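Batch manifest line 188
LIGAND: fe (iii) ion
JOB: complex structure
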Amino acid sequence: MEPLAPLPRDILGAGTAILAGLALDVEEEVLASLKGVVVRSPFRNMVTPSGFRMSVAMSNCGSLGWVTDRTGYRYDGIDPEVNRPWATMPTAFRELAVSAAREAGFPNFVPDACLINRYEPGTRLSLHQDKNESDFTQPIVSVSLGLPATFLFGGLERRDKTQRIQVIHGDVLVWGGPARLRYHALRR
Ligand code: FE
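JOB STATUS: finished
ARTIFACT:
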């Protein structure tokens, strides 16, 4: 399938881009390498600091992975579930992230962590900012694979109005620069 042209960036504001279908060209490599990643670090439902078991199942690859437990949120070089480092970030992941970031106006992206969220029907991710990273000059690149979903983009304050984005298989969202700390969520 021919990837669709990127939507006009001003729809979402400075620093945010929807790159529709950008992952379609590399989906086979990405899905094949994803299998290896989750053999090493299987999907698990992590617990938030307040004791809530997340409905989204997660894994990671790269030199650091995002984790949560009763002690808080953090990036960790060791997968605490299996007590060894996460899988190396597959080349297909890294190249897709770098090219998406470049398309979105962030030519110097060096991804070192990739959180993998597995949503099933009925799961959701509540409104949050990605703020456990140490370098906010680097953008967030989010790749959607599988079922369609509704992504919500808010503003820099929790109370700001959200914009609804339908994401489908192969879509890539990027937010960085002035948009780096935008609130976002995945609807049930
Ligand atoms: Fe997030």
